[in-house]
Amino acid sequence: MEKIRIGVVGVGNCASSLIQGIEYYHEKNKHEPIGLMHPLIGDYRPSDIEVVAAFDIDKRKVGKDVSEAIFSLPNCTTIFCKDIPKTNTKVTMGRVLDGVADHMADFSNDEKFLVSSHPESSKEEVVKILKESRTEILLNYLPVGSQKATEFYAECALEANVAFINNMPIFIASHPEWAERFKEKNLPIIGDDIKAQCGATITHRILSDLFKKRGVKLERTYQLNTGGNTDFLNMLNRTRLSSKKESKTEAVQSVVGQRLPAQNIHIGPSDYVPWQKDNKIAFIRMEGKLFGDVPMNLELRLSVEDSPNSAGVAIDAIRCSKLALLRGQGGVLYSPSSYFMKHPPKQYSDDIAYQMTEEFIKGIRSF
Q1: What is the pLDDT of residues 202-251, one digit of tens each?
Q2: Cα–Cα distance between 74 and 277 in angstroms, integer?
């Protein structure tokens, strides 16, 4: 059985965790795959994924084998599998566009992007690499706010006839025009904005759904997040945050039953704390009324390593995309998108999204 051939845009912390995980689950946890939602999807295990193309703009990564680039600065995620064999795939200089916020230049070399002096790749060059490497699925891991850069790589995927997984909060799968273009080319797309395995958003959603089902009237809530990776550093530029806040807020609003007024719900990245590195700390508060209008409140503190928390979901999204390719299914994969992403084209409660995704994997559901 051939491997699932993927390309990666942005060889940062999330890509590092994904690639470490592919090797980690190859032998060490083959028979006891702790931490996986699905050890097997179709006939594919995580170790059946192969990185055949990679794009980045940082001079510490461009030109290196992917196995080395994933451990290069400014990456700072946990190393849980350090013995990564050479992939024979070198990181290609991509396109900068709006992929780097201006303020990143104000920080130390360990934290900021150092843009490579290599010539930027044209669309034709990116498409050529995707075709020659026989990439089947392209994953977008660009920084928050990279609207033009994300659209550039989505265009490349379309031209190269490659499926697309949009892990970032730029709306592609959930944008009707982009969704229609992937449908016309019969290419699968999953998006937008990956929902972590057990992160702040999924926890907030589950608790909001619990309030609704138990008859608790939710009146006010917030979710505040801090972290020390380049994602949080990038998001200090608040002008890049609009789609991220919309994505995270809508993920919770969609399950609360009666939508909260905008002034009573605040969800989004809050601050950059360098020493936290890839650790993300979320503070959630929910205020509501119980039986007899008696007030109650809930406060929760969640601490997780941010990038491995997304990698387990990405590994499932890749394999679901492969199933769609094998079945000849193109356009938005609504079931996996609703379960794996914060801002899918159609929002469902997590229990329904889970059931839909299980049916998709089994071939019962075709979208």
Answers
A1: 999 999 999 999 999 999 999 999 999 999 999 998 888 888 999 999 99
A2: 10
Quote the CA–CA distance of 292 and 185 in Å, as a whole number. 56
DSSP for 206-253, please give it.
Answer: HHHHHHHHTT-EEEEEEEEEEE-SHHHHHTTSGGG-HHHHHHHHHHHH
Q: Distance from CA of residue 130 to its chain's centroid? A: 21
Closest CA to 46 of 320, 304, 306: 320
Contact criterion met (CB below 8 Å) for 288 and 218? yes
Longest dimension (CA), the chain: 67
Nearest Cα residue to 230 out of 296, 328, 143, 315: 143
The string of pLDDT tens digits covering residues 110-152 is 777 789 999 999 999 999 999 999 999 999 999 999 999 999 9
Distance CA 324, CA 301 (A): 38
The pTM score is 0.95
Neighbours of 309 (CB within 10 A): 21
Q: Which residues contact 167 (CB under 8 A, 6 or more apart)?
A: 14, 139, 140, 141, 191, 193, 194, 310, 314
- Give buried/exposed letters for 48-59 (b at 16+ CB in 10 A, else e): bbbbbbbbbbbe
- What SS3 class is residue 270? strand
- Helix crossing, 123-132 with 147-160: angle to 10°? 50
